[in-house]
Amino acid sequence: AAGVVATSLDQTLVALQPAIGSLDILKPASLVQSGTIDITAIEQAVPAAEQALPGIERAQQTLDGAPTTGLLMGQVRDAGTQLDEQLTSLHATLNTAVTFGKVAGPLLGQDGQKRYFLGLLNPNEARGTGGFLGTYAILTANQGAITIDEIGSNSDIPGLPALPASIGEEFRNRYGDDPTLIGNMNMSPNFDDTARIWLAAWKQKTGEDLDGAMALDVVSLGQLVSASGQPVTLPNGTQMNGAQLSRFVLRDIYKQFPDAAVRKEYQEAVTQSALNTVTALSKPLPMAQALGQALTERRIVIWSRDKAVEKDLREAGVSGSLQVPDGHQILPIVINSSGSKLDAWLNRGVVYDVGRCVQDGRVSSAVTVDLRSDVPLGERPPGYMIGQAQMGPNGPVHIVTLQVHLPNGAQVTGVQLNGQEVGSFGFTEQGRPAVAVGVELPPRFTERVTISFTEPASEGPAVVGEQPLATPQAVSVRDVECS
């Protein structure tokens, strides 16, 4: 084990040595001055960071091979743990630098100002991209400086008479005209479509063609606030840290402000304060790490009207695209169907049984999704959070649509709810097969949906995508060999 740790460390140093001079550019103190990001410096560091990444990945793979069973000296175990944490942080930081460096100039207004629609999503009411659009902001980026020009509520955004012409037929077949309404504009998990709809709504409101759109959920907003080391000041003068902010927006604000108009006004003020805290960039390094985590978790996604920039964003995996390469890839999505905020208590478990017994180039696989509404026993959520959910003997009965986006080329062979065959709706989105089924969730009772399907055989690993909601999903992947 000690030998593996030493080898991994050696690989890390070898990977970093040729690039160390250039990587020195990435010192946070020199990258950010008075809230302005040095775009040129980041761009200069991209080749060095890109060169170092493969070596860091090899070092991680080496470390993953260290023996973990039997007697292991505490010093060796601790050294392995520390190196693993440092390699993970280093890889995330370099990967973020490469991703951001390639698009920093065009996104941050190196050649002239850019204006963006920023949707603040609240995962207490699930939509395809994560949460419900509660508030929005209009941002301007100019020469690396980001300013907040406007904060508004979802009620300020008009509905559309029709979907934009750029929205494809597959989208229309699945979602119909529902996404013309502001509350449903991000029903699809494919952020490209959401961004186009948001920007069309903004143009209808103002006549302005914005340069792009971003989505940021309140969980990642809280994480960015925490990383800044600065509190958020509320309209009443009290202050909150990042973790308190996330919980307040997810649940507590509805108890404190039952009146919708008062609540929206208060929420806009909270959003303004939080975004001011974040865009001040007071602690660049921890904030960059929090940003990298949020991008990895799809809690922040970005779409650009510039096709070249959008291509880079897509290749970097931060565009929120539903498209995936061939192989064992699934994405379970929950869409709130009860007009409630009960997804604040939603728990999800996913098991992907990956077929490895090949017949005629295909394998038989299955995905099982457990859904549970964990509204605490004896706690009645505020009326606005219950929404249109019906009250049962044990509390509000939440209704959701579960849709699972399957691997390219998959064919569904069966859908079961709690072991019984159930009706479902099959469709294709972004060329990818999917199936949707309605599920009722009585409080504190687990509902299990199992989808059986065949898919093209692949020796690659299985990937289970995650919809960013209030509580992370539990994931298990199992290989199913020939019996």
Helix-strand layout with pairing:
Blueprint: H1 2-16, H2 20-23, H3 28-31, E1 32-33, E2 36-37, H4 39-64, H5 74-107, E3 114-127, E4 130-142, E5 145-153, H6 169-175, H7 191-206, E6 212-217, H8 218-228, E7 232-233, E8 239-240, H9 242-256, H10 260-279, H11 284-296, E9 300-304, H12 307-316, E10 329-336, E11 346-355, E12 362-373, H13 383-386, E13 390-392, E14 395-405, E15 411-417, E16 420-421, E17 425-429, E18 432-441, E19 447-456, E20 463-464, E21 474-480
Parallel strand pairs: 3-6, 10-20, 11-21
Antiparallel strand pairs: 1-2, 3-4, 4-5, 6-9, 7-8, 10-14, 11-12, 12-19, 13-14, 14-18, 15-16, 15-19, 17-18
What can you tell me about this protein's structure?
With 483 residues, the chain is α+β, with helices and mostly antiparallel strands. It is 37% helix and 29% strand. It has 13 helices and 21 strands. It has helices spanning 2-16, 20-23, 28-31, 39-64, 74-107, 169-175, 191-206, 218-228, 242-256, 260-279, 284-296, 307-316, 383-386; strands at 32-33, 36-37, 114-127, 130-142, 145-153, 212-217, 232-233, 239-240, 300-304, 329-336, 346-355, 362-373, 390-392, 395-405, 411-417, 420-421, 425-429, 432-441, 447-456, 463-464, 474-480. Strands 10, 13, 14, 17, 18 and 20 form a six-stranded mixed β-sheet that branches. A six-stranded mixed β-sheet has the order 16-15-19-12-11-21, with no helix packed on it. Strands 5-4-3-6-9 form a five-stranded mixed β-sheet, sandwiched between helices. Helix 8 (218-228) packs antiparallel against helix 11 (284-296). It is globular. The model has no long low-confidence stretch (mean pLDDT 90).
